């Protein structure tokens, strides 16, 4: 699998965690439909076995254990469900490209990124008010770095950063460095009612 830029969304389906088991052998036979998953956990999350969301019928093993090599990050929340970072991009078979965010699977096609927000507007604005003070005025910073600093899911922080861009409070780097943001120099009049928490 490869990690790459997220492309325009073409479909969405629910992420369904069917079970947590201690070994991959115990996961056999539990996955039947696209988007179903089994978490393999021995002391800590090791693998996520996911039925490919494209419908090809293949099971995708996703490494969650950094000690076993390059790994995805698993985020669990009672309020927002399960998220996985970064995107999954199969480089064989169906070549599906997708993200798992807030217990939804967003399946992509094409080349350039624009995620559809999964949060409520008030929630996004609240997170954006926390992100704003972390944006530098001069250099661009990755939304992932901000998410790590805040202990938040990167997809949520990307959503908040793009909200700030939409409100005229931030700038997203263009080209191959999209996903990097900085604070826009503004006057008090340019705040458009944005309330920043101290």
Report a brief summary of the structure:
The protein has 198 residues and is of the alpha+beta class. It has 4 helices and 12 strands; from the N terminus they run ββαβββββββαβααββ.
List keywords for this structure.
single chain; 198 residues; alpha+beta; Arc Repressor Mutant, subunit A; 2 domains; five-stranded antiparallel beta sheet; four-stranded mixed beta sheet; 12 strands; 32% strand; elongated
Layout of SSEs?
Layout: E1 9-14, E2 16-21, H1 24-27, E3 36-41, E4 45-51, E5 59-63, E6 73-77, E7 81-89, E8 97-101, E9 104-108, H2 121-131, E10 141-142, H3 143-150, H4 154-166, E11 170-172, E12 180-183
Parallel strand pairs: 2-3
Antiparallel strand pairs: 1-9, 3-4, 4-5, 6-7, 7-8, 8-9, 10-12, 11-12
Give the assembly state of these chains: single chain
Helix content: 10-25%
Biggest sheet details:
5 strands, antiparallel
Q: What's the total count of β strands?
A: 12
Task: Compute the number of structural domains.
Answer: 2
Strand adjacency order, main sheet: 1-9-8-7-6
Residue windows where pLDDT falls under 50 for at least 5 positions? 1-9
Count of alpha and pi helical runs: 4
Quickly give the structural class.
Answer: alpha+beta
Fold and architecture overview:
With 198 residues, the protein is α+β, with helices and mostly antiparallel strands. The chain folds into two domains: 100 residues; 71 residues, Winged helix-like DNA-binding domain superfamily/Winged helix DNA-binding domain (Arc Repressor Mutant, subunit A, Orthogonal Bundle). The protein has four helices and twelve strands. The protein has a five-stranded antiparallel beta sheet with strand order 1-9-8-7-6, covered by helices on one side. It has a four-stranded mixed beta sheet with strand order 2-3-4-5. The chain has a three-stranded antiparallel beta sheet with strand order 10-12-11. A hairpin with a 7-residue loop joins strand 7 and strand 8. Helix 2 crosses helix 4 and helix 3 crosses helix 4.
